[in-house]
Amino acid sequence: MTTTDTVRPTGAAPAPAALTAAELAAVRADFPLLGRTVRGGRPLVYLDSAATSQKPNVVLEAEVDFYEQRNAAVHRGAHQLAEEATEAFEDARAAVAAFVGADEDEIVWAPGATAALNLVAYALGNATAGRGGAAAERFRLAPGDEIVVTEAEHHANLVPWQELCARTGAVLRWFGVDGDGRIDLTDAGAVITDRTRVVAFGHVSNVTGAVAPVAELVAAARRVGALTVLDACQSVPHLPVDLHALGVDFAAFSAHKMLGPTGVGALYGRRELLEAMPPVTTGGSMVEVVTMAETTYAPPPQRFEAGTQMVAQAVGMGVAARWLDELGMDRVARHEHELAAELVRIAEIPGVRLIGPADTHDRLAVVSFVVDGVHAHDVGQVLDDRGIAVRVGHHCAQPLHRSFGVAATARASASVYTTVDEIVAFREALSGVRAFFGVE
Amino acid sequence: MSALEQMYQQVILDHAKHPHGRGLAGSADPAAGHLAGESHQVNPTCGDEITLRVDVSDGADGRTVSGVSWEGQGCSISQASASVMTELVTGRGLDEVAHLDAVFHDLMASRGKGLGDDDVEDALGDAAAFTGVSQYPARIKCALLGWAALKDSLARSGALAA
């Protein structure tokens, strides 16, 4: 049996303690929504955390507290409220930075991971259009330059690169996936070439739960001087992540998948890169000197934070990061590793086929699956009738689904508050789906 | 009957298993007095899709739908709805088809209550069984996918032009 050590970045630390039953009960009691019932009084079994997580009381309270006690425009204003709001906002940035092993000035607030990934793509486009001066030379793309992604990407880490290619004449290339949906590094030397300028990939697939070979991809990108962009949406909420140790150039993640509010996320960028990168959204708060003819820009991170920011949500994201830190991400990862082992057991149910690895090595507690003879939408509806919330469809990963020859799957995904009992209930309900539709 | 059973009525499951009209007719040019149109519709939230062909014939009483054929992939609701619709509209005049389309849309907007008019629901035939689907907002698009393809293919056929 594998242990959580397989997904720990160092692999050398002693195994963290499992969450005790009492600790898990206390965790769950912190999430008001988990206490509600659905569909005629059934207890909610929430297995859609890969789409969005539920929020603990401290996060909800942090937003209310900000609005009740500190609400003011940040980084301006001479009054006490402005000071306190700015302090809360920047303290949240420090919390998020520490949570992912980054420095404070390497964290840029964005409305979410999608916006953060687009920010990088558009900044490269602006550099290619000549913006950013000599410092931005390293971001400029020429026709025939190559951008590399993978077939496993969420659309948010695919479409912005397609668009950047269309605007600049760069060429999109990609790694395929193997039968388990893992990135196929065979012939990596033919995919990442001396024309490669960007290598963008997801840390953990939101469909298969497979953990990407980050070290190999970063090393291959570095050999040719390409920038690396990590979509860390599905890793940061579930694993200890140290972006400096991973060595990526950029990373994006959303608050709402890591127990925080919607409407906020973070772009991580190595300091020297953010300093050299031209802005994307322009306007107030991101400038130094503005004349009628031209403008000079603030240093990062403010250069990339035009307009009034989502301050209360950022504060909530900082609280979510600290909540997870206090519990300990190594313990969260261990708990979820047990959940992953329970989830992959759905493959034992007749007629159920996993889309993704059947083992728990380098994979998180996300399983996508098809049920022979029953469409994913219909599977989800029957589970919903039992109070079990799963996602159905292509999960914003049409190319990956196409590679498996399916249009849609159902997906169950766990988070720190998920219990083994919930997954047992899910498996039991799933066992009855084919009988309901008379296809056994 | 539970809400789930109201949605997945036997008549719907039967249509889903043995759909009418499935298998797209060839795209040969229609003969004189005939029109044909084809439409491809996608439900982007779940990836369900349908390609539908409609044939329209001129008759003494105006234009009628002389044939509907389609192929696609999707959930039991979208497949059954396309099947039921095929049965319902084949042989009907274009005004009748437009009326049935409007009534079916009203039914889907009824949030499980139905239309409160037995005569109107009787006119829908098996399509009235989709009342239960209208309790589930996320599934209404599934039931309407085939109807959207029919409407678009009729428009593309030119049969709706005066």
From TrEMBL, chain A:
Coiled coil: none annotated. Pfam families: Aminotran_5. The keyword Transferase applies. Residues 45-425 form the Aminotransferase class V domain. Its EC number is 2.8.1.7. Keywords: Pyridoxal phosphate, Transferase. It catalyses: (sulfur carrier)-H + L-cysteine = (sulfur carrier)-SH + L-alanine. The keyword Amino-acid biosynthesis does not apply. Gene3D superfamilies: Aspartate Aminotransferase, domain 1, Type I PLP-dependent aspartate aminotransferase-like (Major domain). Its cofactor is pyridoxal 5'-phosphate. Catalyzes the removal of elemental sulfur and selenium atoms from L-cysteine, L-cystine, L-selenocysteine, and L-selenocystine to produce L-alanine. Belongs to the class-V pyridoxal-phosphate-dependent aminotransferase family. Csd subfamily. This is Cysteine desulfurase. The lineage of its organism: Bacteria, Bacillati, Actinomycetota, Actinomycetes, Micrococcales.
UniProtKB/TrEMBL annotation, chain B:
Residues 7-142 form the NIF system FeS cluster assembly NifU N-terminal domain. CDD domains: IscU_like. InterPro entries: NIF_FeS_clus_asmbl_NifU_N. Residues 18-44 are annotated as: Disordered. It comes from the Bacteria. This is Iron-sulfur cluster assembly scaffold protein. It comes from Isoptericola cucumis.
